[in-house]
Amino acid sequence: MKWTQLPLGPLQTNAYVLQNEAKDAIVIDPGSEGPALVQWLKEQNLKPLAILLTHAHFDHIGAVDDVRNEFKCPVYIHQEEQDWLPDGSKNGSERFLGSNAITARPADHTIENEQTLRLGSFQFEVLETPGHSPGSVSFYSKEHSIVFSGDALFAQSIGRTDLPGGNHQQLLESIHQKLLELPEDTVVACGHGPTTTIGSEMDSNPFLSGF
Length: 211
Known about the structure:
14 strands, globular, RibonucZ/Hydroxyglut_hydro, six-stranded mixed beta sheet, Metallo-B-lactamas, Metallo-beta-lactamase, Chain A
């Protein structure tokens, strides 16, 4: 499996595109710049099988319908946020963008609990990692030693918890009980900023000491 990090939009939200040798692809968090993302996928001759959302904040969902409409692929989100996509007040876009609220059609599939998600040749362990938002999840590929953590864990930082539904203590518990339990060489593909590893964050993330 090959994966590509694509920072999109004014908040430079990381979309991730995973692909196999057959050019099947998974798109995680297509946050903005829909036409450009669709064009890039076409130029790479990729065939998206699904869109996976770590959570439904507006900066992670802006290109969902562009990609879904073009490639006819389903969208997956945790059930706690299944009604956030079409609602600018819940996904935060009304608060930050006013009348330019960002919305998308409801997801095609909801994730109800931790499970193994198999999509074509791709396989992920779905880890429930709430705290940044109630329905935040991380997608872990054990085979490829990488976890797509959304806005739960960043390089030398953690997700903000001052937005509606955020909970600082819950986020710390999610990180310690779910993410830091992964092998230390696991790559953490964050929702913003550079990638890191579980081991690096265990050793030096200032937000995780003294928990």
